[in-house]
Structures are given as structure tokens and as C-alpha cells.
């Protein structure tokens, strides 16, 4: 497993330049920002084969056009790939990018651990 460093570079003007890793995490996070897309990724990542969009529309509580938009977001993020064979469209997890996303998130979450310093906000108000 490779060690991924997530850094924010400071350029000469004193402003921050976001690294490719930070931008990738943001892109993958956006793709994961809806429960339907999370479900699709869970389903496809567990399968050894592809799934047709028609099958997904039968099991999800969304219409065909909404499902199409969700699939488009996942494809744009590079997490899935589609193959069009009219009138069918089949989708598979993009294993290479899926593994990359897992590595990025693991590194990000592990680096985010603090060394015992707490930023807890103490609310002294009384709730009834």
C-alpha cells in the first residue's frame, strides 16, 4: 500500500494551491454525497459483474431520469464505467479508481486524527 500525503501547498503569492490528492478527495466526496449514489457504489463494488441501469431503476426509489443523473455523477468522478449497447446501458465499478478512492480516504481519515487535542464545544445551555 502506498503512503499518500495530503498537503496544501503555499505558492509564492502566499495563497494556497490545493494538491491533486485534495482535489481527488473532493471529487470522490461529491460523488458520494447522495444516498442513491452510495447505494449504487455499494452494489457495484460487491458484484463480480456489471449491472444494467434498468435493473437499478426497478430497485431504487427514483425515476429513470434521476437515476441517469446519479450514474452520470459517478461516471464523471471515475468511480463507475458504462457500456452502451442500445437500448441497454450496463455499468461496472471502475476497480482502479475505486481502489484509489479507498486509499485516499483512508489516508485522509488517518491523517486527520488528532494527538489528544480536543476542539469540543461545551454547551452550558439547558435543554428541556
Description:
The protein has 128 residues and is of the alpha+beta class. It has a single domain (18-109), classed as Winged helix-like DNA-binding domain superfamily/Winged helix DNA-binding domain (Arc Repressor Mutant, subunit A). The protein has 5 helices and 5 strands, in the order ββααβααββα. It has helices spanning 20-31, 35-46, 53-59, 64-76, 95-111; strands at residues 8-10, 16-18, 51-52, 80-85, 88-93. Helix 2 crosses helix 4 (64-76).
Write the topology of this structure:
Layout: E1 8-10, E2 16-18, H1 20-31, H2 35-46, E3 51-52, H3 53-59, H4 64-76, E4 80-85, E5 88-93, H5 95-111
Antiparallel strand pairs: 1-2, 3-5, 4-5
Helix pairs in contact: 1-5, 2-4
- Fold-level CATH name: Arc Repressor Mutant, subunit A
Radius of gyration: 19 Å
Share in β-strands: 15-25%
H/E series: EEHHEHHEEH
The CATH superfamily name is Winged helix-like DNA-binding domain superfamily/Winged helix DNA-binding domain
Largest sheet features:
3 strands, antiparallel
CATH level-1 class: Mainly Alpha
Structural class: alpha+beta
Kindly state the number of beta strands. 5
Q: Termini distance?
A: 50 Å
Q: Numbering strands along the chain, what is their spatial order in the largest sheet?
A: 3-5-4
Query: Which overall shape is indicated by the principal axes computed on the Cα atoms?
Result: extended
Q: Please report the number of helical segments.
A: 5
Uncertain runs are none
State the helicity in percent bands: 40-55%
Number of domains: 1
Amino acid at each position: 500500500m502506498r503512503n499518500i500525503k495530503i498537503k496544501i501547498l503555499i505558492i509564492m503569492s502566499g495563497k494556497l494551491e490545493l494538491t491533486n490528492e485534495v482535489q481527488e478527495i473532493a471529487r470522490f466526496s461529491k460523488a458520494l454525497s447522495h444516498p442513491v449514489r452510495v447505494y449504487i457504489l455499494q452494489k457495484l463494488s460487491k458484484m463480480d459483474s456489471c449491472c444494467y441501469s434498468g435493473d437499478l431503476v426497478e430497485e431504487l426509489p427514483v425515476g429513470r431520469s434521476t437515476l441517469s443523473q446519479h450514474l452520470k455523477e459517478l461516471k464523471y468522478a471515475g468511480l463507475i464505467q458504462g457500456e452502451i449497447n442500445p437500448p441497454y446501458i450496463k455499468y461496472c465499478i471502475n476497480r482502479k479508481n475505486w481502489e484509489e478512492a479507498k486509499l485516499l480516504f483512508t489516508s485522509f481519515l488517518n491523517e486527520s486524527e488528532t494527538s489528544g487535542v480536543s476542539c469540543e464545544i461545551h454547551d452550558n445551555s439547558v435543554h428541556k
